[in-house]
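Escalated from tier 1: cytidine-5'-monophosphate holo job.
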Amino acid sequence: PAARPLAGRHVVVTSGPTHEPIDPVRYIANRSSGAQGAAIGAALAALGARVTFVTGPAAVPPPEGVEVVRVERAGEMLDAVRAALPADAAVMAAAVADWRVDGASGQKLKKGEGGPPSLVLVPNPDILATVAGMQAGRPRLVVGFAAETERVLEHARAKRLRKGCDWIVANDVSPATGIMGGSENAVTLITAMGEEEWPRMGKDAVAARLAARIAEALA
Ligand code: C5P
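Tier 2 regenerated the structure:
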């Protein structure tokens, strides 16, 4: 049992980018590879958790041994997360698009007399804040990520409070770090109890350490 401390636990993980349609053939996206999320899904499953892995269109394949739910848009991701609950913990590692195109076209937009179309953006739901704020059925542990390029800890602390999640995994994604799209990560785990700066290590090692901490917290 010690080797599988998450046996009998259910964890929902979000991962990857979202794609927000402009029309049936075009979309707005971001550069998230889904690597850190996939590593977290694998690490939780390795500790015995039942993992529902809700993923946008990621560059890396989903891990083995998890239940994969594929989505495209942020709205679909939120629906899939809600449908996956109840869970003991939720780890939101997805890079969710902050905005979607209002009234995405049902037909391919055509070049024409009117010149280029204007896109009106509207805010997407915040999945992390929604789950963290649930009055009923909130997972016992809700973990978010804060990828920042400046004043990382300050922004991440504020984010933890604003979103109402229990833990924030903060990391510096400035281009000079090579973290975005790379195989390593350097994070600080921020909880109500304090902050732990972890040395730079592989994304798999970050995931293993985070999964171990989640197992401790749920024990
Ligand atoms: O606000 P920001 O995007 O920096 O917050 C990042 C954290 O919030 C990540 O854990 C991400 O998965 C989550 N998030 C979310 N839904 C959004 C935006 C962010 O779940 N619409």
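The first strand starts at residue 10 and ends at 15.
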